[in-house]
Design a protein that fits this description.
It is built from four helices and four strands. By secondary structure, the chain is of the alpha+beta class. The chain has a four-stranded antiparallel beta sheet. A hairpin with a 6-residue loop joins strand 3 and strand 4. The model has no long low-confidence stretch (mean pLDDT 80).
Length: 117
């Protein structure tokens, strides 16, 4: 039962972060055009699975004190969160005038078609 609650909480948190990020940082015409090249949804799916497995590993080690299980669970959580962040933040959005490249930790760069040789 705890596993299902943790999985639902992680999925809900990821969904809310995705929606909030989209509303906060996607304001150019290319973002609103609906035309985009995005990372495969498998990145997010595998990221969510890894976060759930990492949390399950941490819960299994609550009483044992096994350092390897704790470190492994924390590492798996970090890798899963990195995959989710890559899925949420990376994208190439385009329309008839140009395209915008969005990456994590960097400003979105806009390219106009008449600038490209």
């Amino acid at each position: 039962m705890q596993f299902i609650l943790v999985a639902a909480a992680v999925f809900g948190l990821c969904f809310l972060i995705d929606k909030g990020f989209t509303k906060a940082f996607r304001g150019t015409a290319q973002h609103r055009s609906g035309l985009a090249v995005k990372v495969s949804k498998y990145y997010a799916t595998i990221g969510i699975i890894l976060v759930i497995l990492g949390i399950a590993a941490l819960f299994m080690d609550l009483e044992g004190g096994d350092l390897l299980l704790t470190a492994g669970g924390a590492f798996v959580i970090v890798v899963g969160l990195c995959l989710i962040m890559h899925y949420v933040t990376f994208g190439v959005y385009y329309d008839d005038d140009g395209f915008v490249v969005s990456k994590f930790g960097k400003r979105s760069v806009t390219y106009r078609y008449n600038q490209i040789s």
